[in-house]
Design goal:
Layout lengths: L1 H29 L1 H7 L1 H11 L2 H5 L3 H5 L4 H10 L13 H4 L3 H24 L6 H26 L15 E2 L2 E2 L17 H10 L5 H11 L1
Antiparallel strand pairs: 1-2
């Protein structure tokens, strides 16, 4: 019994491999650019959902993006909730390998490029997958740009202000061209003018405060 079950599993796996090879050869012949963009399985599902390659070529990129989740779209519009961002195109490798916050943006770009690839495959005879490979390379470069911007944003988000120091190039004839700011850890009472202490003395009327400020000014 166990040997028969193992034989069935092996035969099913071989049949699956044969189906995949057949699907791969057929999709590379029928829609090479679409296959280069989203893969064989996703391409076959899009064509099956659209009815044919010609019918799919009539759809805009926004429809290709949400193809397969029409019920969820109309339900969201009826209940005034957030609409879905992707349908069958979600299973493409370009979307699956991205972070969740970039999936919506890259799905819009991929759907637009996929619509162009579908029209190219449907309306041009003897077409190879050159256009699909070029558009896929552009999308991958766009993904790397988005990831680079995110890393740059996190790298530049450190708190704190840079310290302003006085360099030799800022000195001219013993003085500073652009005077450096005073750091609080180097702050002393000498940085406060006598008019400052006088204003404090005039505002405060406390016994013994006059003698205290006089001593403080002498110390400074």
């Amino acid at each position: 019994m166990m040997m028969q079950l193992c034989d069935q599993v092996l035969s099913l796996s071989e049949y699956k491999a044969q189906l995949y090879d057949y699907l791969k050869s057929r999709m590379n012949t029928i829609a090479p650019n679409l296959t280069a963009m989203v893969g064989e399985l996703v391409s076959a599902r899009l064509i099956a959902h659209g009815g044919s390659l010609i019918n799919l070529a009539k759809q805009p990129g926004s429809t290709v993006q949400i193809l397969g989740v029409e019920k969820a779209l109309f339900r969201a519009l009826k209940t005034k909730h957030a609409t879905p961002k992707y349908g069958l195109i979600y299973h493409a490798s370009l979307i699956g390998q991205e972070a969740p916050k970039f999936k919506g943006k890259i799905s819009r770009s991929l759907a637009a490029k996929t619509a162009l690839a579908i029209r190219c495959d449907a309306l041009i005879d003897g077409q190879d997958n050159t256009m699909g490979l070029e558009n896929r390379a552009k999308l991958e470069a766009q993904l790397r740009g988005l990831e680079g911007k995110e890393l740059g944003r996190f790298a530049g988000s450190a708190k704190g202000k840079p310290k302003i120091e006085a360099y030799d190039k800022d000195r001219k004839n013993g003085g500073l061209i652009t005077p450096a700011k005073i750091r609080w850890r180097d702050f002393t009472f000498q940085h406060l003018s006598y008019s400052f202490w006088l204003r404090i003395f005039l505002r405060q009327r406390v016994p013994g405060l006059k003698a205290f400020f006089i001593k403080l000014c002498l110390l400074c």
